[in-house]
Write a structure and sequence with these properties.
The structure holds 2 protein chains of 2 kinds.
Chain A lengths: L4 E3 L2 E4 L5 E6 L6 E8 L3 E9 L2 E5 L6 E5 L5 E5 L8 E8 L9 E2 L3 E5 L1
Parallel strand pairs in A: 2-11
Antiparallel strand pairs in A: 1-3, 3-8, 4-5, 4-9, 5-6, 7-8, 9-10, 9-11
Chain B lengths: L3 E3 L4 E4 L4 E7 L6 E7 L6 E6 L3 E5 L2 E6 L4 E6 L8 E8 L6 E2 L3 E6 L1
Parallel strand pairs in B: 2-11
Antiparallel strand pairs in B: 1-3, 3-8, 4-5, 4-9, 6-7, 7-8, 9-10, 9-11
The chains are: A mainly beta, B mainly beta.
């Protein structure tokens, strides 16, 4: 158990809809990262938050947004969903703002868009 | 060209075999090298971490980095069926955000 909690584990929704994925980092970790994993693209970095502030952005679509709250949990909002958004979404956490790349991953949220 | 290249496999070996998993990368700014293991329907977990060229050993696992060739390897000795998983290499540099390879699926059959 990594200590990172993600909910929901599975989500099925329709095109055009909006969903929110939630992540609680390991106790004491201040950084939260969101990754998307699909069969054709592998694990792609979306965005990082550190202590409530956005720190780095990767290949995140404009339809997607995220935030980190004062209690350090984070939410990833996906809107105007398309079939191609079906993927596993992982949250990971680390202690500092700039570590060495050692991340602790949750078990993921599997999103299916029909 | 992707920043980190990794053969997706699958790689199928008999129990007890020595397994060699490899990645190549393109950007010399990378300085931290990691191997993550991902079991089916689970999140990746950190297996090995190193920041220098050379070998690092942990039990049956050895991570090897060759910065001059931009090539990293993970060796698994005496492989077990419980080693069956996807192995992802990950590399980070100035941004400290790890870039992952696509992962190699390993199957160790009894």
């Amino acid at each position: 158990d990594s200590g990172v909690t993600q909910t929901p584990k599975h989500l099925i929704t329709a095109t055009g809809q909006r969903v929110t994925l939630r992540c609680s980092p390991r106790s004491g970790d201040l950084s939260v990262y969101w990754y998307q994993q699909s069969l054709d693209q592998g694990l792609q970095f979306l965005i990082q938050y550190y202590n409530g502030e956005e720190r780095a952005k990767g290949n995140i679509l404009e339809r997607f947004s995220a935030q980190q709250f004062p209690d350090l949990h984070s939410e990833l909002n996906l809107s105007s969903l398309e079939l191609g958004d079906s993927a596993l979404y992982f949250c990971a956490s680390s202690l500092g703002e700039r570590g060495t790349g050692e991340l602790f991953f949750g078990e993921g949220s599997r999103l299916t868009v029909l | 060209q992707k920043e980190v290249e990794q053969d997706p496999g699958p790689l199928s070996v008999p129990e007890g075999a020595i397994v060699s998993l490899n990645c190549t990368y393109s950007n010399s700014v990378f300085q931290y090298f990691m191997w993550y293991r991902q079991y089916s329907r689970k999140g990746p977990e950190l297996l090995m971490y190193t920041y220098s060229s050379g070998n690092k050993e942990d039990g049956r696992f050895t991570a090897q980095v060759d910065k001059s060739s931009k090539y990293i390897s993970l060796f698994i000795r005496d492989s077990q069926p419980s080693d069956s998983a996807t192995y992802l290499c990950a590399i980070s540099g100035g941004s400290y955000i790890p870039t992952f390879g696509r992962g190699t699926s390993l199957i160790v059959h009894p």
